[in-house]
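thought: fold this chain, then report.
action: predict
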Amino acid sequence: MLTGLDQDSTYAAHVLPPLLLLGVGLGLVMPPAMSLGITGVAFHDAATAGAAVNTRQWVGGAIGTALLNTLAAAATGAYLTEHARTPAHLAQAQLHRYATAYGWSASLFAAGAVVAAPHFRRGRPAAAPQGAAAVHL
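observation:
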């Protein structure tokens, strides 16, 4: 939705709705993903598993930011190589930059969903054995 922004786009009509949708989507995805990261881990290893999940999240975010910034900068450079550096083309280059980053982001989210989907199980988790401590995130 954000890849279609143009110079006449407004925040309320063109930016806010996709941001709200993104917030709801991430809010629905992150808790199960974090919980899945420690599923099946022994009680005494739960803290280590939780730390590993959080570390992967932060490192992945840092790598993703660097990757998307590199792709966006390359898209801007490619656009300006093909067009004169007028104010209109500079503004369009920035829009092209963001559209490239948004498109790659959407592709990476879709690829992540395909990879993660087989790991999610339907139904209620099995009860912990009698006397065993349950691990919750």
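thought: worth noting. DSSP finds three helices and no strands in the chain.
final: tokens above.
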